[in-house]
Amino acid sequence: MLEFILLSCINTLIYGLLLFMLSSGLTLIFGLMNVLNFAHASFYMLGAYFAYEVSTHIGFWPALVFAPLGVGLVGIFIERYGLRSVHKYGHVAELLFTFGVFYVVNELVILIWGRNPVAYKIPEMLDFTLMSAMGTEFSAYRAFMLLISVSMFAVLFFAITRTRLGLIIQAALTHPDMVGSLGHNVPLVFMYVFGGGAALAGLAGVIGGNYLITEPAMALNLGPIVFVVVVVGGMGSLTGAFVASLLIAALQTFAVGFEVSLSDLLALWGVSAPDAGGFFHDLLRIEISHTRGMMPYLFMVLMLVFKPKGLMGTREE
Amino acid sequence: MKDNTAASAMRPFVVKSLAILAVVAIILLLPQIFQTRFAQSLLNQIGIAVIFALSYNMLLGQGGMLSFGHAVFYGLGGFMAIHTLKMVNNGVVPIPTELVPLIGGAFSCIFGLIFGLISTRRAAIPFALITLGIGELIASCALIFPSFFGGEEGVSANRWTDVTLSPLNFGRAGEVYLLIAAWMLVCVFLMYLLTRTPLGRMANAVRDNPERARFIGYNPHMVRTIQFSLSAFFAGIAGSLFAINFEIITAHALGMMASADVLMMTYIGGVGHFFGPILGAVLVTFLQLVLANITHAWLLYFGLLFMCMVLWAPNGISGLIMLHEPVWKAGLFKKLLPSYGRALVPGLVLFLGVIILVEINYHLSLSTNPESPMSLFGIEISAQSAPPWIASLLLMTVGFLFFRKAAFQVRDAWDEVTRRMRKGEH
Amino acid sequence: MPETILSLKGIHKNFGESEIITGVDLDVFRGERHAIIGPNGAGKSTLFNLVSGLYPVSEGRMELKGHDITKLAPHRINRRGLSRSFQTTNIFPKMSVFENIRCALLWPMGFGHSFWHLCERKKALNDRSRMVLEQIGMADRALMPAGALSYADQRFLEIGITIAGGAEIILLDEPTAGMSRHEIERTVNFIREVTEGKTLVIVEHDMGVVFDLADRISVLVYGQIIATDSPEAIKKNEKVREAYLGKEAV
Ligand SMILES: Nc1ncnc2c1ncn2[C@@H]1O[C@H](COP(=O)(O)OP(=O)(O)O)[C@@H](O)[C@H]1O
Ligand SMILES: [Mg+2]
Question: ipTM beyond 0.85?
Fold first, then answer.
C-alpha cells in the first residue's frame, strides 16, 4: 500500500508538471488575448515529433533545444498570419480557427510520419534506474523530467516577475480590459506570448513524447484534459492552473489503483447485487479504475455547474 | 406592388407551392435517376447529414452557441433507435420502423434538456468548453456501460421487419431512402418554421445581444436551453436514421470527431443562412464518400477547406452566394466574371501543386512499399524521385504568385461594382 | 397621497472599494414623469442598473408595486412591468429594425418561449410592431439591419424597444444624448406621447427637456439624492444650485 502511494505520488508529480507545462501556456494565451487555443495540444505533439526527428539525426540534447524553438516559430507563424486576421470576427471565430489548426496539424502529422507511433526513445544515457525503494523503481529519466519541469518553472517565474514583458503580461492578466492601453506594441506582445506558450507546449512534448508515446492521437487524447485543467483552475489564473494540474493528475493516477465497484461496496454491507444484466448491472460493476478516463470531465462539468469561475479564477469567461 | 388584384396577390404563393412540390418530387425521384449502389448509399447519407447539419446550425448560426459535442445527441438518438429496433426484432414492442426516429429524437431531446440546463448559462467560450467536456464524458461512458453502448463493437439490429405503417418493409436501401427522404423533408420544414417562431426569433436576439434580451423579459439561459434541446431532438432523429440505415451504431458516432465533422460541415456551408448547412451537408458528404475511395488525404483537404473558410469566407459558401445577390439583381454580375476567371486558373494550378505534394507524401508515409510507383491523375510517378517534388513546388509558387495578382483584380472589380450599385441607388 | 409605484429604501452600491451609491431613498408615484439629474459620474446610470436588476444592490430594498424586487433577475423585473433603455445604445444589431421591435413585444404579448406559433401569422403582434415603428418614425427602414442605422436612429430604436411592450414604468437613460436640436424636440414629443398614462423615470442632461417633461425632479450628487421636488422648487433650491445647477444652468 505504501509503495502504491509513493509511486502514485511520483507519477502524479511528473504527470501534473507535464500538464502544467501545457496549461500554463494555454492560460497565459487565454488570459492575455482571450483566445482559447484549441491547437495547444497540437504544439505538444509537434514538439514530440520534432524531437523525434532531431534526435534520430543529431541527438536528444540538441532536440531538447531545437524542437521547442521550432514549435515556438510555428506558433508565431500561426499567430501572425492566421489568428491575427480572424481577430476582427470575434472570439468564436478565433476558437474556430485554432480548432481548424488542430485538425489540420493532426492530418499533417499523419501525412508526414504515418499513422503508427514513431520510435521516439528515451536517451540511453538516462535509461537506467536511479534508485529503488521498497521495490519501487525510480528511473533516471523521470528524475530528469522533474528537473526540466522545475527549472522551466523557475525560468517562467523569473520571466514573469522580473522582465518588462512579464510585467506587461501580469498587468494584462489582472486587468484584462486594460490590455488595449498597453501601448502600440500589443500585437507584438501577443505574438511572443503565443509563440512562448507554443514553445512551452513543445518542450512538454519533447520530454513527454518519449516517456508516454508519440503518435498522431496524442493531441486528441491530451488536449481536452488540458482544457479541463484550465477550466478547473480558473481561466486566466496561473496559480489555479498549477493547482488544478496536480489535482487532475492525482485524480487520474490514484484512480488506477482502486479496483472497487459499487457491488463490492454493497457486498461489504452484506447485500449481494442481483445479477440481472442490463444498465444497472453495468453501473454496479464499474470499478473506480475504469472511470479514470471520464473522471476529469466529470470534474470539469461539475465545476462549471457549481463554481463556474474555477478554483482560483476571478473572471467568469 | 401597387395593384391589389387577387390574381397577382396569389402569384407568389402559387409559385412557392409549385417550387416546393417540384423539389419534393425531385428528391423522391432521385434514386430512380441514380441507381447504383454507391449512389443509393450516398443519397441516404446526404439525407441524414442534412438533418444533422441543420440541427447543428440551430445552435451555432441561430443561437450563437459553438458546440464541440453535438454528436452526443446524434449518437444517443442512434443508440436508442437501435435498441428500439432490437426490441421490435425480438417482438417485445410493436413500434413501426417509420416512427423509430421519433423515439430516438425524444430520447436525445430529454438529454438535451438536461445538458442544456447545465451548459447554456453562458454562450461563447464557456459553452464550447462544457459541450466539449460533456462530449468526452459521454464518449468515455460508452466503454463502461456496454449494455447500452455495446462496447467496442457497438450495437446492431435488423431494420427489416413487418411492423411498419406503410407497405414498405425497409429491406432494400431504396426503401430506406424513402424513409430518410420523408423524415428529411419533414425535419427541414419544421426547422425552417422554427426560425420564424417566437423562440427562434429570441434565439437570434440572444445570439446578438444576450444582455438586452434580459430587459425585454427573456432569460437567455432559458431561451438557449429550449433551443438546445430542440436541436438535440433533430440530431437524435438524424442519429436514428443513421442507425436504421446502417443497422449498427458504435460509440464513434457520438465522439469528438463526429462532433467536429458536423461543425465543419455546417460552417463550410455557411451559418448565416438557413440553406447554408444543407449545402454544406450535401457537398461534404459527397466529397467524403467520393474522395475517400480515391485518396487517404480527404481529411486533410477537408481541414484545409475549413481553414480557408474561417480565414476568408466566415459566412461559408451560402454567404459567398448571397454576397452576389444584390450584384446579380443590379445586372452587374458579368462585370465580376472576367476577374473570377483570371483567379480561377492560377487557383487551380496552386491547388494542383498542393495535391501532388500531399499525395506523394501520403504515399511515402502510409504505403507499405514507398518505392513502388504511384499513380496520380492516371500518371505513373515515383514518389521518391525529384521530378514530382519539383513540379509540385513549381506549380505552387507560380500558382500562388498569379493568384495573388488575380485576387487584387477581383477586389478592384468588386470596388467598381459597389461604386456602380451605389450610383444606381441615387 | 399619490400611490407609490417604485420605492427605493436605503440603497447602497459598492464596486470593490468605492461606494458609488451611498444611501438612496426614492419614491416614484404612479403616473408621474420623474426626472433624475446630476453631474456626470454621480451614479444615475448605476441607479438604473440596480433598479432594473443588472447589478445586485449591496444594501437596501427595492419595491415595485409593493412587491420586493431587490433580488430579482432583470427578466423577472421586466415581466413585472418595468422597462428600461440604456445610455449607450443596446440593440440587436444583426436583426432587422422590425424584428428588434417585434422581439420586444413577444413577452408582453404572452408568446413566451412558444415554438408552436409563427410570428408572421400573429396579426396583433405585427400590427403593434408596425405601430411602434410608425411612432418612432422608422417605418421606412423596417427591413434594414439595426446595426446599419445612423446613430440617432439607433437611439430611437433603443427607445422603441423600451416602450414597445407597454410597460407600466419606463426608465430612460439619457435618451437624447448626442442628438441634434431638431431630433431632441421630436424625441421629447414622442416620449410625452408614449408615456401618457404611464410612469416615466428619465435621466437627462438637457435642462430644457427636463423642465419641459418632468412633474418632479430628483437631484443625485455623489451617490445621494440631495433633493426631490417640483421643477419650480428645484430651480429655487439653494443646495441644488450650489451642487449642480449653479455651474451649468447659467
Ligand atoms: N460596473 C462598474 N464597475 C466599477 N465602477 C463602475 C461601474 N459602473 C459604474 N461605475 C462607476 O460608478 C460611477 C458612476 O457611474 P454612472 O452611474 O455611470 O454615472 P452617471 O451618473 O454619469 O450615469 C462612475 O465613477 C463609474 O466609474
Ligand atoms: Mg450615465
Answer: yes
